[in-house]
Amino acid sequence: MRILVLNGGSSSFKYALYEISQDDAPTVASQPLFREDLERLGTECRATLEPVLRRAGSVDAVGHRIVHGGSYRAATWITPEVRAAISGQAEVAPAHNRLELEAIDTVEAVLGTRVRQAAVFDTAFHATLPPSAYTYPGPYEWFSSDGVRRYGFHGISYQYATRQAAEVLRGTPRRLLVCHLGNGASLCAVREGRSLDTTMGFTPLDGLMMATRCGSIDPGIMTYLLRHRQYTVERLDEILNRESGLLGISGVSGDMRAILRAVADGDVRAQLAFDIYMHRLVREAGAMIAVLGGLDALVFTGGVGENSSAVREALCKQLAFLGVTIDPSIDVQSELDQNIAAIGSSVPVLVIHAQEEWEIARECWRLLSHR
User: Fold this and answer.
1) Which among 56, 113, 125, 314 is placed 20 to 30 Å from 283, CA to CA?
2) How far is residue 169 CA from its own chain's centroid?
3) Splitting the chain (371 residues) into consecutive groups of 10 residues, what average pLDDT does each group show?
4) d(Cα 266, Cα 274) in Å, to the nearest integer?
C-alpha cells in the first residue's frame, strides 16, 4: 500500500509517502519514500500540494492529521459529514483545522474521489479520559448542550510515544508521563497505555506556556481586558494564540533555540521567559504525576523535548525527589529512541523521536485493511 500523509501543524507542514505491506501489520516505523518539513505552508496551499501529489504518483490513500475531531474518537474515512464536523471545529482550533480543510479540498480537486482520504484525529487518544478529567466545573449545560469539555490534543504523538516506550522498555509502563514539547506543548498522564489526563483542554490554548500561546491563565483576565482595554474578541484571540508565550514575554522569539541563545547573551526578558516556561512545566508535570499516583517512566518528544537538553535537565532536576536522574553525557541528537536515565535512576527517562506521520500511515493501513 502506498499512503501519502499530510500533517499540518501550528508552525509547520509536513508530508511523507510510505509503502506498507498489505498483509503484515506495521509495527516498527519504516523510512518514508520521501518526506519534507516546510516551515509554513503559507497562502499557496494548493500550489504547494499539487507538486507533492504529482511527486507521490499513484497512492492508495491520503491521511490527514486533524487536530480537532469533536465527537469523532477514532480515525475514519472523510465523508461530507466528517468534513462538516471538521469545519465545525475550525473556530476551536483555528490555527489547524482551516489549513487541514484546505488540504482535503486540494487533494480532492487534484485526485478526484478515486483516492480515499482519511482523517486521523489528535483528540482520539484522549477518548479514555474519565468524566472527572474532561468536565469543566461551569454550568453543566456547557457540556450537555454546547459540547464544552476537555478534548486534549497531540494524541497522535502520544499514541506513538506510548507504544514506542513499551518497545524500548520491553513492557508497557503502568504510570507514564509523556511530555510533547514543541511549538505547541502539552503533557499526558498515561496509565497502562490509556490517556488518564492531559493539559490541553477544549482548545489547544490550555495548559503549558508555549511558543506563542499563553497556556492556562486566570479567566478573569479575559473579562478585565474586554471591559477595560476594549479588546474585540478577535484581537483577544490573536494575542492569546500568537503574541503570548515565549514570544510575548521575551520579545525575542517563540523558538526555544533563540530564547536560549538570548539567555546566554544575558537577555533578562529571555531568562524570565525560560524561567516561566520551566515553572509551568514543572508545576503541570507534578499535577500529572499526582493524578497517576506515581511515575514509572518519563518521555520527552517533540522538537523541544527531543533537542533541548536544557529543558530536559531542568525538569528532571526538579523531579529528583522521585529518584529521576539523567546522564547528561548521553548524545540524543540522533533520531534513535534512547533511555537517558543515569545508572541508578529510579525512573527511566526516554527521548522518543516524534513519528506522527508514521502513526497516521498506520491508521490509514488499518482502515484500508478492514474495508
Assistant:
1) 125
2) 23
3) 86 87 81 84 70 90 91 92 88 74 90 94 96 98 95 96 96 97 97 98 96 98 94 94 97 98 98 98 98 98 96 98 94 81 97 96 93 52
4) 12
Backbone angles phi, psi at 359, to 5 degrees: -65, -40
Residue 99 phi/psi, 5-degree rounding, is: -65, -40
Instruction: Lay out the sheet containing 2-8: strands in order across.
Output: 34-38, 13-19, 2-8, 61-66, 116-121, 76-77
Q: Can you tell me the distance from the alpha carbon of 180 to that of 350, in angstroms, rounded to the nearest whole number?
A: 12
Backbone angles phi, psi at 157, to 5 degrees: -65, -45
Same-domain check for residues 283 and 184: yes
137's grid cell: 466545573
369 in a structural domain: no
Same domain assignment for residues 189 and 316 = yes
Q: Does 363 map to a domain? A: no
Q: Which residues pair with 326 in a beta bridge?
A: 341
For the chain, the domain total comes to 2
191 and 91 part of one domain:
no
Instruction: Judge if pTM exceeds 0.90.
Output: yes
Q: Are residues 99 and 134 in the same domain?
A: yes
Active site residue 122: yes
* 241 and 272, same domain (yes or no): yes
Which residue in 23, 122, 327, 331 is the catalytic one? 122
Residue 52: CATH number of its domain: 3.30.420.40
Reference 68, options 123, 118, 14; nearest CA is 123
The amino acid sitting at 39 is E
For residue 278, which of 307, 317, 248, 326 has the smallest C-alpha distance? 317
* Residue 30 belongs to domain spanning: 2-152
